[in-house]
Amino acid sequence: MGMLIAYLLGILTAINPNDHNRDREHRVSNPHDGQSFPHGPISVICLPRTLSDQEQAEKKTKKRNKTISYWARIASLVVLVIYAGVTILIWRANKKAAEAATTAAHAAEKAADTAQKQLEMSERPWISVGFLIDQPIEFQPNGDMGVRLHVIMKNIGHSVATDVRLVLGADPEGGGDWYNKIPKEQKEMCDTWRNAKFPLGKGSFTTLFPGDSYVENPFFRVTKEQIKKVELQVGGKKAITGISLFGCVDYGFAFAPEHHQTGFNYDLVRPGPPTVHPPKFGEAQGGAMFWNIGEGIPASKLAIHRSIFGGFYVD
After folding, report:
1. How far apart are CA 240 and CA 234, in angstroms?
2. Which tops the pLDDT comparison, 7 or 206?
3. Do 227 and 264 form a contact (C-beta atoms < 8 A)?
4. Could you tell me if 286 and 306 are in contact, meaning their C-beta atoms sit under 8 angstroms apart?
5. Number of domain units in the chain
6. Is residue 167 assigned to a domain?
């Protein structure tokens, strides 16, 4: 009995378990085809199902629509760029046209103004002024000096001068800086009338037709206080050198509403020895002798010369 058990154990021990397992795997893994599975990972391949004709048609339609939409956007962008470019070109052309029109308008306006000024210059009135003295200089008992003049105004232009008015001032000449005050006084006097509105008054001012002259005979006084400011000591006596006659003739005409003026500045003096050289334009003609204050001077010993300090203008 013991020998039989030992024999069985020896047989069992001799059997290879791996062969047994392989046989078992062979039997289990190949129930149908008698083939064994390979050792390692198994690859699985999924095949998509075949689309139907309708589905393929719908897919093509969607793709075609996407393509059309894409190119439509591209075309729209191109059209927008072209439109923007054309708009910019039109704007620039309009701007240049507007600038050209503005320039042409300014040129036309300037040409019209020039033509108007030329018309005014050629057709407007022009007033000349001259002085004549035929009355003596007389000193009054209070020390004032009385002067009577003849002022000749003539229209040498081509149109009627209206609202003609003489604006005349007089200051004694002598010591100090009297000549610096004349331009300021002249401007103040004449600007007062230049700023007045036309018409200045009915029947109170003169109208001069082309070629006509008008003589005004002003009488004015140079006060003792005025004389004292410029008096000189000459040979133990008080004296002056003359009288400044300054101002303007203010007038208008029908073609223009503004004032026009002829300015002047003359010296009423006792003529001295004549200058050696011929007098130049604007230069006093000959020297001047002193006037003794309080002593009258006959008209034959008086003369009126253009001042060397200016004051002549036309506008």
Report:
1. 9
2. 206
3. no
4. no
5. 1
6. yes
Distances (CA, A) of 168 to 151, 163, 264: 10, 16, 9
Q: What is the pLDDT of residues 55-106, one digit of tens each?
A: 777 778 888 888 888 888 888 888 888 888 889 989 988 888 888 888 888 8
Residues in the chain, overall count: 315
Look at residue 305 and tell me whether its pLDDT is greater than 70: yes
Q: Among 48, 46, 72, 71, which residue's Cα sits nearest to residue 59?
A: 48
Split at pLDDT 50, 70, 90, the class of 282 is very low
Report if residue 136 sits inside a domain: yes
What is the per-residue DSSP string for 114-149?
HHHHHHHHHHS--EEEEEE--S-BEE-TTS-EEEE-
Q: Which domain holds residue 147?
A: 127-314
**Is 225 within the bounds of a domain?**
yes
State pLDDT tens for residues 96-154. Answer: 888 888 888 888 888 888 887 777 777 889 999 999 998 898 888 898 998 899 999 99
Quote the strand ranges of the chain, DSSP E.
Answer: 127-132, 138-139, 145-148, 150-155, 161-173, 206-208, 213-216, 219-222, 232-234, 237-240, 242-253, 256-271, 288-289, 291-292, 303-306, 313-314
Cα–Cα distance for residue pair 237/289, rounded to 1 Å: 14
Helix (H, G, I), strand (E, B), or coil: what is residue 211? coil
Among residues 208, 230, 311, the alpha carbon closest in space to that of 266 is found at 311
Determine, yes or no, domain membership for 298: yes
Query: What does the radius of gyration of the chain's CA atoms come to, in whole angstroms?
Result: 61
Q: Which structure tokens are listed for 42? A: 């198994």
Taking the whole predicted model, whether its pTM rises above 0.85 is answered as no
Locate tokens 């003739």: which residue?
A: 249
pLDDT digits (tens, 9 = 90+) for 12-32: 455 455 444 444 444 444 544
Strand order in the sheet with 138-139: 138-139, 145-148, 219-222
